[in-house]
């Protein structure tokens, strides 16, 4: 492809994100006040509980098969490496920039989690549809690309809502005392924390002291039960299993099961499927996920422009981590995997693996900060600046990645 065509292909998806973000800011202005604070919280809950699970489930059910899943086994490891390396670089960024304590969870989250969801889903079809695409016929490229991108989105959502969620949760609890949040619109945070708090504060049941002969036996039984159940309760609290069963994670599991198991796929996917209306409904709901999340980023930006405690050095550190350091690590990791025959020979697959290291921070981080009410305005500033930078860096890296895999 010519350089100008490649530049246009990479620039268009980022511009779409910026336009929708600007619309979200516009709708949150006091003159219109459509996306007011209460509306943002309710919309955020819809994204978390409905739109995101529906989007992941519908795409995976349609595009993933057992054969394709076996061929892309390296992708979960590759995405995990982006999270681990990003977190390590984010920790280094915190040490260098000396970010405020209430910003540390946000910085680590933005460095760890890339926008593996809507960005590849927009970029890959645009690359495939360009005339003279380096990845072959449009239909073949689009089918394979959407399969890779949807799997990338599902895996990253599992990591985000387990790994990154816990990072931001820990720092939010430390600085904002989220156990005291009483707003019903906060959603999963208030429910989980309240449940753990009530569980830990519930008094232990003691045996009724009916007589002196029975009491020692019952007391001894209760003490043994405490010894057995106390480690289990502690383990459950530390693992926070409710987060592992978060709606986006459950949507990923359901979509993978339907896609991989042929009888289920025949039941839900296809023009002749008896329950195709279920998959069609999930697909319709999922279509609202990406614009809703992007509008929320723009709406939160309005408050961020008015009052933000984000240091410029922290913002520069996030940009350096996401757009310079991580892509360099990605080139060495993916090229090493190609050289030693760890991954199969598919230039489009290689391109997506490399692209996973050069994406802007995940928009889901904005959803998480909204859920906790911690650093949401600063998160909007990060999203705006990093997406503006992505219009240039993503174009340059995409050009280099295509040259590298072809």
UniProtKB/TrEMBL annotation:
Q: Which residues cross the membrane?
A: 6-30, 42-61, 73-94, 106-127, 147-168, 243-264, 284-302, 314-342, 348-369, 381-405
Recorded topology in the membrane: Multi-pass membrane protein
Question: Per the record, a Pfam family?
Answer: Mem_trans
**GO CC list:** endoplasmic reticulum membrane
Its family remark reads: Belongs to the auxin efflux carrier (TC 2.A.69.2) family.
Q: What does this protein do?
A: Involved in cellular auxin homeostasis by regulating auxin metabolism. Regulates intracellular auxin accumulation at the endoplasmic reticulum and thus auxin availability for nuclear auxin signaling.
**Name this protein carries in UniProt:** Auxin efflux carrier component
Species of origin reads Vigna angularis var. angularis
Q: Which gene encodes it?
A: Vigan.08G132600
